[in-house]
Write a structure and sequence with these properties.
- The complex is a heterodimer.
- By secondary structure, chain A is an all-beta fold.
- Helices cover 0% and strands 52% of the residues of chain A.
- Chain A is built from no helices and eleven strands.
- Chain B is an all-beta fold.
- Helix content of chain B is 0%, strand content 49%.
- In chain B, the strands form three sheets. In chain B, strands 2, 5, 6, 10, 11 and 12 form a six-stranded mixed beta sheet that branches.
- At the A-B interface, strand 4, strand 5, strand 9 and strand 10 of A face strand 6 and strand 11 of B.
């Protein structure tokens, strides 16, 4: 079974631009979560999508948005990039099933975004 | 506020020595608990998880962790460290009960970087 894939793996953008990152979950998984990882703040939760609906959101400005498609693939978008948005963006997928003790998040390799 | 504390930023152990990485959490109720490992330039790999039941949990690569409710701790241990264990380790908590029961919103500690001396 293929794991979580993220594209692209590396991105370089300049301030003010926007960027779109893509995540393909493990087959059969319906939940996709996004995290930002920086040396200073560590791993921070951005949002979670389940069956094309955002069902949980972290404490990030509205410049950060996402969506999920009917095949569970997800994209996140960052508009008006700032230097502080430079980070590793990790995507994780899980079944998303209610009450499932086996519901575990599996992470992709991440997209390294550098904002100049 | 919900939080996870990993008191040790960096630990160095000799190959073959035992290892214990500390994790303390602050949460309104018993959470679900996880340990993940991250090698340089890689994503996170799940080592083990605690949902309920036996408080001593076995994971992959010879790791185990013990949940101690009275101490709000979930420390990770390994009896004999291998050079390949050098990586960064993250403790995380997830909601025990929420809208959907999934673990889509994890709170992570800042991580402990493990170095292994030959």
């Amino acid at each position: 079974k293929a794991g979580v894939t993220q594209t692209p793996r590396y991105l370089i953008k300049t301030r003010g631009q926007q960027v779109t990152l893509s995540c393909s979950p493990i087959s059969g998984h319906r939940s996709v979560s996004w995290y930002q990882q920086t040396p200073g703040q560590g791993l921070q939760f951005l949002f979670e999508y389940f069956s094309e609906t955002q069902r949980n959101k972290g404490n990030f400005p509205g410049r950060f948005s996402g969506r999920q498609f009917s095949n569970s693939r997800s994209e996140m978008n960052v508009s008006t990039l700032e230097l502080g948005d430079s980070a590793l963006y990790l995507c994780a997928s899980s079944s998303g099933l209610a009450g499932s003790s086996t519901d575990t998040q599996y992470f992709g390799p991440g997209t390294r975004l550098t904002v100049l | 506020a919900q939080s996870v504390t990993q008191p040790d930023i960096h630990i160095t152990v000799s190959e073959g020595a035992s290892l214990e990485l500390r994790c303390n959490y602050s949460y309104g109720a018993t959470p679900y608990l996880f340990w993940y490992v991250q090698s340089p330039g890689q994503g996170l790999q799940l080592l083990l998880k605690y949902f309920s039941g036996d408080t001593l949990v076995q994971g992959i690569k010879g790791f185990e962790a013990e949940f101690k409710r009275s101490q709000s701790s979930f420390n990770l241990r390994k009896p004999s460290v291998h050079w390949s264990d050098a990586a960064e380790y993250f403790c995380a908590v997830g909601p025990h009960e929420n809208y959907g029961g999934s673990q889509g919103n994890l709170i992570f500690g800042k991580g402990t970087k493990l170095s292994v001396k030959p």
